[in-house]
Design a protein that fits this description.
The chain is of the alpha+beta class. 23% of the residues lie in helices and 18% in strands. The protein has one domain (19-31, 58-303): Cysteine proteinases (Cathepsin B, Chain A), CATH 3.90.70.10.
Length: 321
C-alpha cells in the first residue's frame, strides 16, 4: 500500500509540469500534412560510429577555444506562457549551426536569429500547447523546398501565442514577415525575406551518436524530463536524483559535454526559460546513464542561409531581387 501511495504522489508531482512534446503523428495531423518524412538524409553519417574514446574529454560550442559559437538565449514564457519548447530547442540549434558555419567561413556581422513566431503562426510542427521537434525540421524542409525557408527574427518577433498563417493588417501576429511603417498607416506583408533553409535532418540517440553529431556539426535539440529541473539552481543534476516516473515532456538544446571536479560526466544543456533560471539559463545533466531521458530522442538539421537581401522600402514596398 505504501509503494502505491508513493507512486501516486510521484504521479501527481509529474503532472504539475505540462507536457509540451506531442508525437510526430499528432503534429502532422495538426499540420494537415500527409506522408511528411521523419528524416531526410543527404550526407553520410559515418561520423556517428566514431568511438567515444576518440573524442575530447570536454567539448563545448559555448566555449570552444575561448570562442562562443552559440546564439542568444531565449525565453519561451514571455510575454505570456507558451509551450513552444519544441520550437525553441530546434530553431536555436539550427541558428547555432548557421553561426558555426559563418564563423568558420570568416563571415562577419551579427548572428542570424530565426523567427519562432513564424513557426507558431503556421503551425509548423505544433502550437503553444505542444509540438514535435522532428515535425518542425520536416516543416522547415518543406518550406525550404518551396523557396521560403524560415525567416529571420526581425521580420516577425516572438509573441508567445499561436498566430495566423495569412497576413492581416488587423491581426498580430500573422503571416510570415511584416512591417509597420508609421502611425495611422496599415502594416504590410513582406513576401521576400532573408531566411534559413533545411537541406537534411534526422535523429540521434545515446551518448556515442550525440557526442559525435555535436562535435562534427553543432548543437542538437533533445527531449528531457523538465519536472525535476523546475527548481534546479546549478551543478550537475545526478542520475540518482531523477524520479521513478520519468517522462519526456520538454525540449532543450545540447551544445557540448564535460567532466566535473568529482569526475562526473555531464551534458551541457541550454534551456529556453531565460537567463534567470539555473546557471544563466544553462544546466549540466549527468552523461552516460540517460539521466532525465536526455539521451533518448534528439534532432539535428543541416541547412543554408541568406547572404543577400531583397532590398525593400521602409514601408515594405518595391522589394527588389
Amino acid at each position: 500500500m505504501l509503494s502505491i501511495f508513493l507512486i501516486s504522489l510521484i504521479s501527481i508531482a509529474a503532472a504539475e509540469y505540462k507536457n509540451e512534446i506531442i508525437s510526430f503523428e499528432e503534429a502532422t495531423k495538426l499540420m494537415g500534412v500527409k506522408d511528411l518524412p521523419r528524416e531526410h538524409i543527404a550526407s553520410g553519417l559515418k561520423h556517428l560510429k566514431r568511438s567515444v574514446s576518440d573524442l575530447p574529454e570536454s567539448f563545448s560550442w559555448k566555449n570552444n577555444g575561448g570562442v562562443n559559437y552559440v546564439t542568444r538565449m531565449r525565453n519561451q514564457h514571455i510575454p505570456v506562457y507558451c509551450g513552444s519548447c519544441w520550437a525553441h530547442g530546434t530553431v536555436s540549434s539550427l541558428a547555432d549551426r548557421i553561426k558555426i558555419d559563418r564563423m568558420k567561413k570568416g563571415l562577419a556581422g551579427p548572428d542570424i536569429d530565426l523567427s519562432i513566431q513564424v513557426v507558431l503562426n503556421n503551425g509548423g510542427g505544433g502550437t503553444c500547447h505542444g509540438g514535435n521537434p522532428t515535425a518542425l525540421y520536416a516543416w522547415i524542409k518543406k518550406q525550404s523546398d518551396a523557396g521560403l525557408g524560415l525567416p529571420v527574427e526581425s521580420c516577425m518577433v516572438y509573441e508567445a501565442v499561436d498566430g495566423k498563417p495569412n497576413f492581416s493588417p488587423d491581426y498580430h501576429p500573422s503571416g510570415s514577415c511584416m512591417t509597420c511603417s508609421t502611425f495611422g498607416v496599415p502594416c504590410a506583408s513582406i513576401d521576400k525575406y532573408p531566411n534559413a533553409t533545411v537541406l537534411e535532418y534526422g535523429t540521434v540517440k545515446g551518448e556515442q551518436e550525440m557526442m559525435n553529431e555535436i562535435y562534427e556539426r553543432g548543437p542538437i535539440g533533445c527531449g528531457v524530463n523538465a519536472e525535476p529541473l523546475l527548481n534546479y539552481t546549478g551543478g550537475v543534476f545526478l542520475h540518482k536524483d531523477q524520479p521513478l516516473i520519468n517522462p519526456t515532456n520538454h525540449e532543450v538544446a545540447v551544445v557540448g559535454w564535460g567532466v566535473d571536479e568529482n569526475g562526473v560526466k555531464y551534458w551541457e544543456m541550454r534551456n529556453s526559460w531565460g537567463e534567470y533560471w539555473a546557471e544563466m539559463g544553462w544546466a549540466k545533466i549527468e552523461r552516460g546513464p540517460n539521466t532525465l531521458n536526455l539521451q533518448t530522442s534528439c534532432d539535428w538539421a543541416v541547412g543554408t542561409y541568406s547572404v543577400d537581401n531583397y532590398p525593400c522600402g521602409e514601408d515594405g514596398s518595391f522589394c527588389q531581387s
